[in-house]
Design a protein that fits this description.
Blueprint: H1 11-35, H2 43-66, H3 72-95, H4 105-131
Length: 132
């Protein structure tokens, strides 16, 4: 799916890492800032959770990098969807923290499916860009 001259070397993969780190750091940073730091004995759970979150965020962008999609449109669409969804996730957790309602199962399932959904939308954007 070469759209233009593909980026050389490890540059696209560094972009993937930067996007994933920005999304996960923003959400977890907002949780720590508002909810306060956790107990020191929970650091293993935080690290595992952050690793899983990095994996979830990275999937669509790894696909774009692997397929050498050099067009900006699919990357920007993916970033907008990713940051929008993760931002809404942070808002949902923080806005309803005092209601005692528990976990939003619907949103949690959407978050688990988000790598596939965002990847599909990015591929549609890449294909449309290729057809121009």
């Amino acid at each position: 799916m070469d759209m233009k001259k593909p980026a050389s070397g490890c540059t696209p993969y560094l972009v993937v890492l930067a996007i994933a780190l920005a999304a996960v750091a923003a959400v977890n940073g907002s949780f720590l800032a508002v909810l306060g730091g956790g107990r020191a004995d929970l650091i293993d759970e935080w690290l595992f959770s952050a690793a899983v979150q990095l994996g979830l965020v990275s999937v669509p962008f790894l696909l774009l990098a692997f397929l050498h999609v050099a067009s900006r449109t699919p990357w920007l669409v993916g970033m907008a969807l990713t940051f929008g969804l993760w931002g809404y996730f942070a808002y949902d957790v923080l806005a309803h923290r005092h209601e005692g309602r528990g976990v939003n199962i619907g949103l949690s399932l959407i978050m688990l499916a988000s790598p596939l959904l965002i990847s599909a939308i990015c591929m549609i954007a890449a294909r449309r860009e290729l057809q121009r």
